[in-house]
Amino acid sequence: MNFKCCKHHSTKKYKNYFLKRIVGLELEDHIQIQKSLEKLFDIRMTISIGYGESPFEANLKAYDGKKNKTILNKEHNIFGFVNGKSDFKVSIMHLDIDDLTSTRKTNSPYEISSIIFEILSKMSKFFLERNSLTFFMGGDNFMVIASDDAKNSVQNFIDMIKNDNKISLNCGIGNGVTSREAVKLATKSLDTIREIRDSGKAKPEIYELSC
Questions:
Q1: Which CATH architecture has domain 3-80?
Q2: What is the pTM of this model?
Q3: Higher pLDDT, 102 or 197
């Protein structure tokens, strides 16, 4: 499995916004992104591209490309590495807290926020050890750009949170050839878990879809 990662940096003085995404895009696609951003906004972005056998390895490769100024396209400030392969798949895990409404009955909003960020901290550490990248999506939603090891270990993480925090998690998994496809399938998987729960049937904690 081959992953690709790109990092975007604002080049305005005193500001440096940093994003990571696993994408099914080639160099020319990033050039077009830069051109579009330059037309729409009064900012200049630097992009660094990396690839690897896991999301974290791709992240490191992109970081190395920017740090060592490995230029792919000088005109549009694009750095990093491309390997010319397109036969890769992206796996995304979309997790949320099961029945958060019940938690609100016994915990204040501040306490719930504290619980959510504690789970985020544990999630980030757990999946980083499995070469995967975790992001907080707002509310009680988390997204993991997952390696195979992460997908195979997600039940262990769910069990750990249930034992340590008395919180149940749901996990929808999506597998696609682009990030967009994988995210849509991960969210659809999570929605399927909620639909099964709301129907009164015993719900799975993990549901997976592929395209």
A1: 2-Layer Sandwich (3.30)
A2: 0.83
A3: 197
